[in-house]
Amino acid sequence: MNIVRALKCRECGQEYDIEPTHVCEFCFGPLEVVYDYEKLDGYFTRELIESRPQTMWRYKELLPINGDPTVGAQNGFTPLVRAKNLEKVLGVKELYIKNDSVCYPTLSFKDRVVSVALSKAVEFGFTTVACASTGNLAGSVAANAAAAGLESYVFIPHDLEQGKILGAGVFGTNIIGIKGKYDDVNRLCSEVAGKYGWAFVNVNVRPFYAEGSKSLGYEVMEQLGWKAPKHIVVPMASGSLCTKVDKSIKEFIKLGLIEDNQTAVYGAQATGCSPIAKSVKDGTDMIHPVHADTIAKSLAIGNPADGYYANRVINESGGWAEDISDDEVVAAMKLLAETEGIFAETAGGVTLGCAKKMIESGKLPRDESIVLCITGNGLKTMEAVADAVTKPRIIEASLKEFDLLAEADGVNV
Amino acid sequence: MKSRVYLTFVQSHIREPLIWKLAKEFDVVTNIRMAEVKDGMGLVGLEIDGADDVVEAAIQWLISEGVQVSPIEQDVIEG
């Protein structure tokens, strides 16, 4: 059942047909997919959802595609982990990790948005897809396009680390490295998206792409036993995930799938790129663009397209936003790995580190349920923790040497 | 070409008639679609229409005047 009604301008409310377009022709406001939810009355039930395969597509009626997905049919439905060890360390009663560091197929939540964008691109008749990225998005577009038999172009800064180029290049995509300052590279990507008849996932199909993030929120609520958490902490780059998690909760309430738990949404950023967190702390909704300087590269968006809307969600839901230093990011990555066995990328360190700071400051209450959204895998940003991880102790291949070491550690035979 | 951009003005530039100067200096048609001044910052959504090289020169002039110029999609390079 397709309940998509239109694309609607978030600013002036002008509606548009479902087409590969993303900006209001009148006021330049961003377009968002809107739905006729009443069509799902009596049909879209918990039982129906639970009867479907455990992928993000079990909520397909709330994702903007016609029928079944053609790209990324296996994506999503990542674990929600009760973080008992972290609860003790942080002194909180009920803490969960939504672990998208194991999202299929490229180990980041981008697989959710990309599979929606590419499925929609196929519907629109595109045969080439593209993106501009410094990491996770590049890999996800390249992999999902390869699996779907689509041609792909990935634009990257020319000096991107070899490991990240490999993470996209292995899928046979066309990688274009662009020289120049960040702002010039960014503007070129926008111009390419406007000129070539491709599905540029985060430009002309962005309204559909962004909706994929809602699946993370749906899963959290189902995995909590059909209820929303009291508090949810989300890393912020463009701010889109923050708004879509909020939208997912409001949709489930509207459809009668959960009770309204007055969920507060919290945003997390690294101090070196924290325009949204700063706006929340300053009590304004104006986002001052910054030049990013942080190890949390996947969150390094200095001029965030959804910053204003993320700010509004945080304020209206009663949440807060925080930022932490790069050293705190590394410490939080280690803490998550050592307590819960989850190796998150730098953005995960940002989320946990900001949550810790907000718990200590009292912004996040200790006695109510908290979900932390971990959005990418640590194997992609190993350089960030390379110097902070304990080095191996080297011994000769001799039992005697190991006995001495074990004795020093207090190990009993 | 028609370029659609957001201009961000810092406080010291808010009172400068930079869009008027732009149209005087370059052979372009400007069309303001949204504008807001708040909290020490100005934001304008502007369409700039003209020959490709003239539009590009106009944008570079705005940047040289201290205005941040970004596509209406803002940052499209994601992590």
Give structural notes:
The complex is a heterodimer of chains A (413) and B (79). Chain A has 14 helices and 13 strands. In chain A, helix 4 links the parallel strand 6 and strand 7. Chain A is globular. Chain A has a domain of 198 residues: Rossmann fold (3-Layer(aba) Sandwich), CATH 3.40.50.1100. Chain A starts with a strand and ends with a helix. Chain B is α+β, with helices and mostly antiparallel strands. Chain B has one domain: Alpha-Beta Plaits, CATH 3.30.70.260. In chain B, a hairpin with a 2-residue loop joins strand 2 and strand 3. The mean pLDDT of chain B is 93. Chains A and B meet through strand 6 and helix 6 of A and strand 1, strand 2, strand 3, strand 4 and strand 5 of B. Strand 6 of chain A pairs parallel with strand 5 of chain B, so a sheet runs across the interface.
Tags for this entry?
heterodimer; A: 413 residues; alpha/beta; six-stranded mixed sheet; 14 helices; B: alpha+beta; Alpha-Beta Plaits; 27% helix; globular
Query: Any guess at the CATH architecture of the domain at 80-106 and 214-384 in chain A?
Result: 3-Layer(aba) Sandwich
Rg of chain A over CA atoms, rounded to whole Å, is 22 Å
Described by its quaternary structure, the protein is: heterodimer
> What is the largest interface, and how many residues per chain?
A-B, 47 and 24 residues
For this structure, what is the CATH homologous superfamily of chain B? ACT domain
Reported by name, the CATH topology of the domain at 80-106 and 214-384 in chain A is: Rossmann fold
Order of SSEs of chain B: EHEEHEE
Number of domains of chain B: 1
Question: How are the strands ordered across the major sheet of chain A?
Answer: 4-5-13-10-11-12
